[in-house]
Design goal:
Blueprint lengths: L9 E6 L3 H10 L6 E5 L9 E5 L10 E5 L1 E6 L2 E6 L5 E5 H14 L3 E5 L3 E6 L4 E5 L2 E10 L10 E11 L8 E8 L6 E8 L4 E10 L5 H14 L5 E12 L13 E2 L15 H17 L10 H16 L4 H11 L4 H6 L5 H10 L3 H8 L3
Parallel strand pairs: 1-2, 1-11, 2-8, 5-13, 11-17
Antiparallel strand pairs: 3-7, 4-7, 5-6, 9-10, 10-11, 12-15, 12-16, 13-14, 14-15
Bound molecules: flavin-adenine dinucleotide.
The site of flavin-adenine dinucleotide has 30 residues, from helix 1, strand 2, strand 3, strand 16 and helix 4.
Length: 373
C-alpha cells in the first residue's frame, strides 16, 4: 500500500506584500509554483515613491513615473552637477507598483494575495512549514519572510517629505537635487532632497543620516522652512511620506534555518545610503530563481571589500558628522561618470568599486578619522 503524503496548501508563502514580497510574487506569478502573499493592509495606497538608478531590468519598468539624467549635490564646497548619457535616476510610484503586482498575481494560476491578514508564528512541520495567521493557518513548502525588521539599527536614514504643487514655477524639472546639505539639526548629516516632477510639482524631503530620529517636531519645522525659502506662492500638499531606514553593515534579522528573509529585514538597504529598491529587485531575482529552479541560494549582496568600505564610511559619518557633506561632495565630484551611481545601486563590479575607492580620500586617512587612537 502506498503511503499518503499530505501536500502543503501552497508551494510558497510570502509574509508581507510590500516592496519585497510583491517583487518576488510578480516573478513567481507565471511559474508552476502556487503562491500565497499575506498582507495586513486591507487596501494599498500610493504611500511612497521609490527612486533609484536603474542598472537592470525588472517587472516594474512600466510603473516608472519620471526619469532624470542629471542630479546635484551641494554644500559649503559648492555645487556638483552630474549628468549621465546612459544612467537614469527613476521614480516608481508605489500606487502603480502595487496595482501592477496585484494584477500579475491574479493572472497567474494558483496564486493569491490575502489582504487584511496578519502572519503570526511560523513553525516547522515534517515536510515544510505551518504559518499561523489571524485568519487561520496554512501550510507551505517554503516560507519567505518580508515583514519589517525586528530590530532598531544603530544608525539610519530618517526623513519627512511632502509632494507639493506650487503656484509659481519654482522647480527645475530636469535635475534632481539629490543631497543639498544644511547645517545639522540632527546628531548626524542633514540634507534636503527634491524630486521635481514639473516646474510646479515636486517631492521635497528633509533627511538625516543619524544615530537616531530627530523627531517629527524638528522635521516638520525644517520642511516648512525649506518650502517657504522656495517662495512658491500658494502651495497644496498632495501626499506625505516618512521613513526610518537602516544604515548598518550586516543589518539583517536572524530567522530559523530554512526560512528565506528578504527586504529591509533581510539586509536589503544599502548600508551607506539606506536605498533598498534596486537591491530588493536583486534579492527577488535570486530567490525566484532558487525557488523555481532549485539549487543554492546566496543572499549576501556585498563582498568583503564593499563591507569594509561601508563600515569605514559609516564610522566617519557617525564619529565626525561635520565631515559628512565634504565626503559626499568629494565622491560625487571625483568619481567617474556612472560608476558611483552603479556602486550606490549595489553593483558588485570590481571596476565600479575601485573607482569609487580611488575617488575618496585615502582609506588609511578615513580609517584614522573614523577610529582615532
Ligand atoms: C516612505 C519611504 C520612501 C522610500 N523611498 C525609497 C527610495 O526612494 N529609494 C529606495 O531605494 N528605497 C526607498 N525606501 C526604502 C525601501 O525601498 C522601502 O522601505 C521598501 O518598501 C522596503 O521593502 P520591504 O518589502 O522590505 O518593506 P515594506 O515595503 O514595508 O513591506 C513590508 C510588508 O510587511 C507587511 N507586514 C507587516 N507586518 C506583517 C505581518 N505580521 N504579517 C504579514 N505582513 C506584515 C507590511 O504591511 C508591508 O506591506 C523608502 C522607504 C519609505 C518608508
Amino acid at each position: 500500500m502506498g503511503q499518503i503524503v499530505s501536500r502543503p496548501d501552497v508551494d510558497v508563502a510570502i509574509l508581507g506584500g510590500g516592496c519585497a514580497g510583491l517583487s518576488l510574487a510578480a516573478r513567481l506569478a507565471h511559474s508552476k509554483l502556487s503562491v500565497r502573499v499575506i498582507e495586513p493592509r486591507a487596501v494599498y495606497t500610493d504611500d511612497r515613491a521609490w527612486s533609484f538608478w536603474r542598472t537592470r531590468p525588472d517587472p516594474f519598468e512600466g510603473c516608472v513615473r519620471k526619469q532624470w539624467a542629471s542630479w546635484t549635490v551641494e554644500g559649503v564646497a559648492g555645487k556638483v552637477m552630474r549628468t549621465s548619457s546612459q544612467m537614469r535616476y527613476q521614480t516608481v510610484s508605489a500606487g502603480a507598483f502595487y496595482d501592477h503586482a496585484s494584477e500579475m498575481i491574479e493572472d497567474g494560476d494558483g496564486n493569491a494575495l490575502s489582504m487584511g491578514v496578519k502572519a503570526r508564528a511560523v513553525t516547522r512541520t515534517g515536510s515544510g512549514w505551518l504559518v499561523d495567521t489571524d485568519a487561520g493557518a496554512l501550510t507551505a513548502a517554503a516560507v519567505v519572510d518580508t515583514r519589517p525588521p525586528n530590530r532598531i539599527p544603530a544608525y539610519g536614514q530618517f526623513f519627512l517629505g511632502h509632494e507639493i504643487e506650487t503656484e509659481r514655477p519654482v522647480f527645475d524639472p530636469d535635475t534632481v537635487q539629490l543631497m543639498h546639505f544644511r547645517p545639522a539639526r540632527s546628531a548626524g548629516v542633514d540634507f534636503v532632497y527634491i524630486l521635481p516632477f514639473s516646474a510646479h510639482r515636486a517631492l521635497i524631503e528633509v533627511t538625516s543620516f543619524a544615530p537616531h530620529n530627530p523627531g517629527s517636531v524638528v522635521f516638520k519645522k525644517w520642511l516648512e522652512e525649506e518650502v517657504a525659502v522656495l517662495d512658491p506662492g500658494k502651495t497644496k500638499t498632495i501626499r506625505t511620506e516618512s521613513g526610518a531606514l537602516p544604515m548598518e553593515v550586516g543589518f539583517a534579522d536572524t530567522v530559523p534555518d530554512g526560512i528565506i528573509r528578504m527586504g529591509l529585514g533581510g539586509g536589503a538597504a544599502r548600508p551607506s545610503t539606506g536605498y533598498a529598491f534596486s537591491r530588493i529587485q536583486m534579492q527577488a531575482d535570486r530567490v525566484a530563481n532558487a525557488l523555481i529552479n532549485g539549487g543554492p541560494l546566496a543572499m549576501g549582496l556585498d563582498g568583503p571589500m564593499t563591507r569594509f568600505m561601508d563600515r569605514v564610511f559609516l564610522q566617519v559619518l557617525r564619529s565626525k558628522p561635520d565631515r559628512g557633506p565634504a565626503l559626499f561632495q568629494t565622491l560625487f565630484r571625483n568619481a567617474p561618470r556612472d560608476r558611483l551611481e552603479r556602486f550606490l545601486s549595489g553593483s558588485t563590479r570590481t571596476a565600479d568599486r575601485a573607482s569609487v575607492m580611488a575617488s575618496l580620500p585615502p582609506l588609511p586617512f578615513l580609517h584614522a578619522a573614523a577610529f582615532p587612537k
